[in-house]
Amino acid sequence: MPELRKDPIISRWVIISTERGKRPHDFVVEPEVVKGGFCPFCPGNEHTTPPEIMAYRDPWTAPNTPGWKVRVVSNKFPALVTEGELDRRGEGMYDLMNGIGAHEVIIENPDHRATLSTLSLPAFADVLYAYRDRILDLSRDPRFRYILIFKNQGRAAGASLEHSHSQLIGLPIVPELVQEELSGSLAHYRLKERCVFCDMIRQELQDRTRVVSENDFFVAICPFAPRSPFEIWILPKNHYSSYTDLSDAGFLKLAEIFSETLRRLDIALNRAPYNFILHTAPVRETQLDYYHWHFEIMPKLTLMAGFEWGSGFFINPTPPEDAARYLREIQLDAGAATAAVS
To answer: Which residues of 182-201 are buried (b: 16+ CB within 10 A; e: fewer)?
Structure first.
């Protein structure tokens, strides 16, 4: 029988449609068509992108030349622009402000063929360090209240270029979804004097039916009320409200479990497109007892249609307990995690 499940953080309801119960091989994943051709993100083409904002590169190399490991540039077609003032104002009953913000691209690796799941662990950790460094830098701008990190992997997930990259948008407002998480977490904390995410982690580690994998620092779970099939959250086991509070050792452990999770998804879902988003505390609000940063990974396997848009509900044909079991049982090549992309 189908189930209605309520997200314990933001009280969002989802329908787990067990009548439609789908296993990994039931999803039709269109293979990515590699077009090749000119790529502005490949080494040697640095002059075709905006100047680099930050890069991890060989010390003997100059900015905007080859020799980089991770490279950050402004988006050539930004959603928001950095220059100018916010000019918050009203227009009758309506509120508006200038489209001020930052929109950056994190080019994750020089190799055009590489994806995050094929990077060596040190290379993956470099990407995670780059997220931290850009958040810290942009947090100094008093106009920004939130730094959103996200990735679109595959054309169906919104990627317009094949070369693996993530994006960052610095916003002058806290996004509504993040605000809902903050409000829901605060309500739980006021009632129970505990972080709702910490409670969730404790229960998931005790029940283990939705745990995909774990290490000393992190746990990967299929959440109780997932919006999409095979949705996975990666959370630090200890309480941190801000991504930037993680230690260097923690980033290496995050690379380890993140890489493993993406490889499991690649195998289970035939390299399905996906999105991931970093959920972290707003800037200058980094020590929150009630909020817990995490990554949310959502494979692109279903579409939102009229019911979803009209109701705000999501219909998920795969129970998270089944998804976690399928992913847990996948046998990974032990050497793949440490092998560098050739």
So the answer is: bebbeebbeeeeebbbbebb
